[in-house]
Amino acid sequence: MSDKMLLDAAQRLFETEHGPDAWVGPGSGAMEKGAPIWLKIEHMGLPLGLVPESAGGFGADPLEVFETLRAAARVALPCPLAETMIAAALISRAGLDLPEGPASFAAPAPGVVSLTREGDGFRLRGELARVPFARGAAAVAVTAELDGAAHLALVAPGDCTQAAGENVAGEPRDTLTVDALLPASAVAPTALDAARVFALGAAVRAIGLAGALEQTTAMTVQYANDRVQFGRPIGKFQAIQQNLSVAAGQTAAAVAAAGMAAEAAADLLDGGSDLAPIAAAKIRTGEAAGLVATIAQQTHGAIGFTLEHPLRLFTKRLWSWREEFGNEARWSRDLGRTALSAGQSGFWPMISSY
Amino acid sequence: MTAIFDFPAPPEAPNSDALRAEVRAFLAEELADFPPRERALSWTGFSADFSRKLGERGWIAMTWPKEYGGHERSALDRYVVMEELLAAGAPVAAHWISDRQSGPLILRVGTEEQKRLVLPKIAAGECFFCIGMSEPDSGSDLAATRTRATPVEGGFRVNGTKVWTTWAHKSHYMILFCRTDGGPEDRHKGVSQLLVDLTTPGITIRPIKDLTGGEHFNEVVFDDVFLPESAIIGARGDGWNQVTSELAFERSGPERFLSSMALLQELIGRLSQQPGNERAEVIVGRLSAHLMVLRRLSRSVSGMLERGENPALQASMVKDLGADFEQSIPDIARSLIECEPDQTAREEYAATFAEVLLSVPSYSLRGGTREILRGIIARGLGLR
Description:
The complex is a heterodimer of chains A (about 350) and B (about 375). Chain A has about 350 residues and is of the alpha+beta class. Chain A contains 9 helices and 10 strands. In chain A, a hairpin with a 2-residue loop joins β4 (about 140-145) and β5. The two termini of chain A are about 25 Å apart. In chain B, α5 runs antiparallel to α6, α7 (about 240-250) crosses α10 (about 310-335) and α9 (about 280-305) packs antiparallel against α10.
């Protein structure tokens, strides 16, 4: 793929299928099962964007594929695109068969699930908390340890006890209680252990945050130009201008951070192990999310506080995604530990190596 | 609209590792006895001797043509040298302005005579510049400049007062921004830039102590100073355009977020002695994330400049975000380490803390105030 043809096509599709007209009314963050929009996305092959060519993928540039996730977030796409993409990337790399339809993934902390051999197959046991879009997924790719090595296990949500949950944007975050006997064909060793998969989750959320921030800032600028008070658009007032400039700077930082996350995520899929750029990206986008959401809500005034107004689609995603796959505090602790162990003389060499 | 948020991935800098190692080795030796409280001055620290050594190394005028003393290296190589100097708190003030701003201006629009006169000396680290922009009644409102160069036989007669002129008292030349034509009502028209040899009769330079107690900036009075016609830089009356096109170079560099590095590194040195301090880990992790992202933004703008684009808006965003970051360091430090700031302390941490604490107010003033930058960003957003 050259000249970002994939990104252009994806963007066109997203805008046609879920442009501003679709934002009106109190819609939730979840698509209906078999929604036409998902079928069109599947038809484009987008969910297979991170699958290697050798395993049935189409050889797209992973950085461009990650950019489609930013574009999806700019329209608040109500589909498990990021989840299916990552799941497919993991499943294909582990040499397992790709399931039909949307999928999701889970990277439980050590000890939360157990994977053991049983007969010709395996038993997966434990609780998978808040799996994104689990209820509509054909399979959830779960990273678990077996004999001290990371394995990927595919489990169907239908074979689990499901407790429905959702984030504040209305996106499904279902908790699955698993005690399932899996066939041998559903489990394989994986190079991507739980820490790496968790980081991939953080990377796609950071990228999504950047897209949602772009739209939030753009909508807010538009509103400030349209809304007239005291005889002029409120965007003519310096107080509003200064706030929106802050939002723009934060958004720019988030977009840059998303680029960093995408590069690092592509490296992880290629066998890399450096999580620091993803940590930095999740920290920075998460911080921007809070600041920009506050400015956007304030600028929109009371209309932005209604459940009808499209602003909610974006600010609620900002408030949700900054917590998912590790919030700022969690990743800051990791990154800070690395920085402090580099010490006074090693700190700058660490920073400047990125 | 979303295009203004796009900062393309910074270009790869091949062989930069070797250059970086070379600069680090040089700095480790040169600055072995340079204390943190001195490093805290960052790019306000002045040493003619140090600048001359950098010139000998070929680390000034790195991107300029060889015929003017430059080294024809890439902007990315130059970036590596700049950020390593700043991270080490090296005293770079003497040549910083001439390398970053004055030299490139003369290279771009100066006459052959001007180029031959100053560029090789700048490159050698032996010729220092200051910028005469602000005046007592013209700060952020640069177009309100009152200093006037009145055309006379063979040149100009200059009268007026410049203020906050950093390192004028140690500089050889000034790039003077003043009115040559029209009146104040003409605003952006009729202003010019002139090359001023600071030994010219009629110029009085008086240092002004700043908040740190240091004498970094000055008042410069022009009393009937004669400048030859050849002093005009670029086109007479085109000063506004020339100045604004410099700004992207001035506003996006690593000096816009690394000014507090001395304190940050001292802080990390202390905290790394406290293993298991989770609050410190969280705070340092956040700062690391900010630094990594700022660096990416700044290097991205450097790439845009190298490609000949005009990222004035993006540069303003880098400077605004960078100033927020570097200004936040003293308050963050005091949330982690209890210490009374004292410039006279024997103990380096207290002195470094004091020096940076007293320096940070200038970070969101110099090179365009926070409010002006945000106004520029608002214009870019289509609000003005």
